[in-house]
């Protein structure tokens, strides 16, 4: 029986695995359905990180995209805005450096409760474990419409080059929708972006709500050079896309309809991975998964969540520089239950801004 099983070897699973290795924790493993950094490997070719990387480590503020306090994607690649494939490579290097026990091509399917923990049924057999750490992310659970075959989701695009050459309709105008619009318009397409709300308009300072500076800057440059190629339509909420002899028809909440020859490109985000995959193991309040102060399920004890689905009050942990601060909080609680003293590690992580236990204090407010 394993003490700890981490499901998923993305940014969160690798970061959490490093903490366990730093503690010389003997009895854990990470299972991954694809390869390390699978989601990042599947990003469209042209997609780049929004958060810049910079080797600021050692001064209390590690590289924003690092998953450990002693690594830096900026150092590894000499770049600020990495591609998905580069970041997956960074995660592989971290996994190698820390000799993480990762079993690839192993998909967690069912999870059963047993006397002393859980049984994880995988395509490679059954794993019994006391603690489960869900690090499955969101990329594999895209938000779709009732007829998913009539749309293309951002996460299904390998490269924008293979899409260009047509008038395009993009639904959604936050990070992925604006990114899709920029890529397609730069390739010469005329793009209509339809959205119910957009981070372009948001007053909030938090980049989890407001469009990030990098994307905003790219979009403004696009409007300077090719304003005629982009049409932004606000306050329209898509409910379905149907297919008929003439192509595709988009249906909106207010009854409006719009026609398109091509399948519309859906950029409406992702659903929370753990609760989508295993709804019985979590409480969902209609907006988000409900977790306790240690990011543990309120329904199934000893099941913790790390990654972008963690939310507490106004704190949305959807960026790596945010959710990495919760790894040690989860570990501290498991250590307490196991009677282990990990205060040295906690202190080191606190010194490096890799520890955040007071979520009430992290609303983003900028005076100017
Ligand atoms: C286009 C785009 C741009 C982004 N840009 C940024 C950015 O600039 N900065 C930033 O901080 N964040 C960014 N993000 C968000 C960031 O990518 C995610 O927050 C991050 O990937 C979450 O890490 P994770 O480990 O939780 O999930 P993932 O990286 O998705 O890893 C989850 C892993 O779990 C595996 N898995 C899933 N289900 C199972 C299963 N049942 N069994 C076994 N394995 C499973 C998957 O294969 C995957 O490898 C971006 C996201 C997108 C989509």
From TrEMBL:
InterPro entries named in the record: Auxin_biosynth/cation_transpt, FAD/NAD-bd_sf
Q: Could you tell me the keywords of this UniProt record?
A: Monooxygenase, Oxidoreductase
UniProt xrefs under Pfam families: Pyr_redox_3
Q: Does the keyword Plastid apply?
A: no
Q: Which GO terms describe its molecular function?
A: flavin adenine dinucleotide binding; monooxygenase activity
| Name of the protein this chain belongs to | Monooxygenase
Tell me which species this is from: Limosilactobacillus gastricus DSM 16045
């Amino acid at each position: 029986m394993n003490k700890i099983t981490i499901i998923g070897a993305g940014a969160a699973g690798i970061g959490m695995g490093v903490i366990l290795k730093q503690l010389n924790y003997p009895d854990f493993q990470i299972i991954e359905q694809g390869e390390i950094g699978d989601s990042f490997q599947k990003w469209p070719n042209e997609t780049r990180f929004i958060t810049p990387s910079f080797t600021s480590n050692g001064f209390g503020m590690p590289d924003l995209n690092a998953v450990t306090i002693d690594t830096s994607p900026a150092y590894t690649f000499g770049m600020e805005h990495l591609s998905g494939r580069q970041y997956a490579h960074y995660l592989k290097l971290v996994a190698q450096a820390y000799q993480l026990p990762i079993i690839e091509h192993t998909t967690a399917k069912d999870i059963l409760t047993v006397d002393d923990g859980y049984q994880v049924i995988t395509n490679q057999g059954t794993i019994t474990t006391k603690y489960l750490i869900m690090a499955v992310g969101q990329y594999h659970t895209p938000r779709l419409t009732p007829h998913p075959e009539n749309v293309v989701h951002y996460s299904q695009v390998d490269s924008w080059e293979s899409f260009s050459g047509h008038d395009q309709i993009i639904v959604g105008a936050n990070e992925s929708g604006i990114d899709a619009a920029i890529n397609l318009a730069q390739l010469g397409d005329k793009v209509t972006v339809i959205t119910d709300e957009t981070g372009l308009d948001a007053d909030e300072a938090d980049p989890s709500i407001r469009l990030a500076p990098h994307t905003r800057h790219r979009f403004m440059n696009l409007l300077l050079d090719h304003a005629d190629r982009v049409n932004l339509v606000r306050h329209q909420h898509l409910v379905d896309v149907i297919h008929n002899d003439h192509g595709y028809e988009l249906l909106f909440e207010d009854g409006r309809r719009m026609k398109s020859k091509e399948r519309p490109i859906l950029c409406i985000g992702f659903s929370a991975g753990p609760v989508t995959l295993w709804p019985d193991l979590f409480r969902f309040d209609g907006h988000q998964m409900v977790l306790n102060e240690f990011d543990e399920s309120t329904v199934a004890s000893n099941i913790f969540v790390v990654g972008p689905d963690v939310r507490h009050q106004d704190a949305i942990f959807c960026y790596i520089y945010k959710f990495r601060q919760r790894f040690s909080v989860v570990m501290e609680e498991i250590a307490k239950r196991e009677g282990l003293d990990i205060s040295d590690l906690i202190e080191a992580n606190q010194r490096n801004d890799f520890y955040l236990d007071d979520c009430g204090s992290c609303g983003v407010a900028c005076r100017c």
